[in-house]
Prior knowledge:
- There is one protein chain.
- It is built from ten helices and 13 strands.
- The protein is an alpha/beta fold.
- The strands form four sheets. A seven-stranded parallel beta sheet has the order 3-2-1-4-5-6-11, with helices on both faces.
- Helix 2 links the parallel strand 4 (68-71) and strand 5.
- 43% of the residues are buried.
- The mean pLDDT is 94.
Amino acid sequence: MTKIALTGATGFVGGALARALAARGHEIIALARPLARRDHLADLPITWVEGDVTDRKSLRGKFDGADWLIHAAGMLGQAGVPERAYFDLHEQGTNNVLAEAETAVIQRILHVSSPGVLGPVSGPPADETAPLAPSNPYERSKAAAEQVALVYARGGLPVVIVRPEFIYGPGDLHVLGLFQVVRDGRFFTISGGQHTCHPTYIADAVTGMLLALERGRIGEIYHVAGPEPVTFRELGETIAAALGVPPPRLNLSRSLAMAGATGLELLARLLKKRPPLSRTGVAFFSESRRFSWEKAHVELGYTPNYDLPTGVARTVAWYKEQKLL
């Protein structure tokens, strides 16, 4: 049995990692903020310790006795969040976690990053040698955090970096809104929906991340992604098919969608609510991202098992079971 410390356990990805680790018989020490919701993991044999990755003092001694550490704490991009908040959590939080890991003498450390640090990719799928080119606050902060992790790795800390891309599946609420607008006939493509994204089903993402933890070379970076990139039109049509509703037909130009998102953001700010569409969201749907997982396949033995129709069908089934759709 390996004792594994885990940050971000109360989130979607961290929770899925916790379940997988428990199923493998590992002992889990999970860091959580005092008010973080934990009831969805109440059935797991987790030892909870309180702390906040943005507060270095709160981490003291929390990883002592752990053999391995997975740093999965993070925040996905959303409208209205100051850029400083992303950097405080991702860059400074990573520095705090790894500084504490040094004192705890951890044997292996997995830092969960994102291929988003490479920004939009319109040509062949990008591999791990592509230059950093983040295009929004979330991506910039994740790129900064990754650089922190590499500095610690060069200094001798046993850090492996994994970049899972666009994770979805049962338990995720971040992309629930996408499924809901497809259901309601309000989903629209931008510029014909021909730009690409690279969805990764949660089970594949967890498998890839744990392979990186177990087999990854220290100081190396590994992409973990779904079988292949898909266009946003394909994504919308696949979700519609799983929901049993007509495929999306509405299409807008990027300029019109961006203008609408700007107005909605202004209105949301006045009402102190989250906008239904943001400029960051428009950018996401009007840019391409595609990544190679060949290195993870060759070095770690990673191969994604869930194609988009299968993963989406399972996700829809879970949403319906939870009465979210």
